[in-house]
């Protein structure tokens, strides 16, 4: 009986070690899975994603990926990489991601609502692509966001008022899209230059508090 109890205890201990290892190795490679889902959604004529091997323990050795000391992904740097395709909601699982740099490609489709789960995000750079649809109101949950550059796409709809609650926001550029309504004038938007909103033919100009509805012309 004592031997059986000892074996059972050792088995439980082994499972605990395996579970801990699993958590340490990027949550059993869940971050790698999320990034590989992005790779599969993109056309990559320059083979910049060639090193993105899903069989590796974690994605920290992949080119264009930066991790912290705990092997959690903090940067994705794929700007100006001749990529096309679409974004995937799986990226929302990268809870330690601080920089998502996908500018100057030919990415199409919409910005997934799940990007609002990137609670550590500092910079979201999707400018100079072919992205359509609306700016997700869920981006208002990104309380660490400093840079939001979505210019030179095909975005439509209003500028979400949820964004005015991001006190850390310093740089916003949504110029050269097809946005409508009015420009927020409170919170961080109080200091954003008007040229960062230009060339949106249906955008009415700055919101007049209490006098104009922000969804005008939408």
UniProtKB/TrEMBL annotation:
Q: Write the record's keywords in alphabetical order, separated by commas.
A: Leucine-rich repeat, Repeat, Signal
Gene3D superfamilies in UniProt:
Ribonuclease Inhibitor (3.80.10.10)
Domain Disease resistance R13L4/SHOC-2-like LRR span(s) in chain numbering: 77-174
UniProt signal peptide: 1-28
Database matches in InterPro entries: DNA_repair-toleration, LRR_dom_sf, LRR_N_plant-typ, LRR_R13L4/SHOC2-like
- What Pfam families would the database entry show? LRR_14 (PF23598), LRRNT_2 (PF08263)
What residue stretches are annotated with the Leucine-rich repeat-containing N-terminal plant-type domain?
29-68
The protein depicted here goes by the name: Leucine-rich repeat-containing N-terminal plant-type domain-containing protein
